Amino acid sequence: MIIRKASIYDSIGVTKVYVETWKTAYRGIIDQDYLENINYDKQKRNFMNMLNKESLIYVAESKIGEIIGYAVPEVTKDDSGVNRGEISMIYVLDRYQGEGIGHSLLEKSANTLIKSEINRMIVWVLKDNPACGFCEALGGTPKETRLDQIGGVDYVSIGYVWENIKDDFTFKQN
């Protein structure tokens, strides 16, 4: 598996991961009708637009060249106007979870933020998503909450924060 920066040619693979992971990760959390009706073409256009605008997306690619996960690190501002890193999306296909791919994607994203002199990072996770445990295992602390509206329904999201990425993030041992 390799982690690399996505290109416009990866929009189909990233869209596939997005659609498949939403249908598996959010089963029993988000309304099933909403999940079944995710528009693949609309999501593909969204990712093509992001990549055309040179948004940074890291993809995890299997040995046979299949995109099996991705992460989107960004610089945003917190409520007090201070820059922080935000991983706005991180998804790994269900059949590849537990293999360290999510960790590798988050680590690559964290290192990118560190190189941009960003010290604080947040990852938003829907409250009932098992990914909450993933964030905690990597040193994230649940510090913020917000309501996210999905399909006209409000869902609670938890913001897992690394106050100092270098010190708080659990990097892999080399």
CATH class: Alpha Beta
Broad structural category: alpha+beta
Q: Which consecutive residue ranges, at least 5 long each, have pLDDT under 50?
A: none
Number of helices: 6
The structural domain count equals 1
The main pleated sheet reads as: 7 strands, mixed
General form:
globular
Strand order of the largest sheet: 1-2-3-4-5-7-6
The separation of the N and C termini measures 16 Å
Give the CATH topology. Answer: Aminopeptidase
Query: What letter string, H or E per element, gives the SSE order?
Result: EHHHEEEHEHEEH
Strand content: 25-35%
Radius of gyration: 16 Å
Return the CATH architecture. Answer: 3-Layer(aba) Sandwich
User: Can you tell me the CATH superfamily?
Assistant: Gcn5-related N-acetyltransferase (GNAT)
What is the overall pLDDT average?
93
What is the helical fraction, as a range of percent? Answer: 25-40%
Instruction: Compute the number of strand runs.
Output: 7
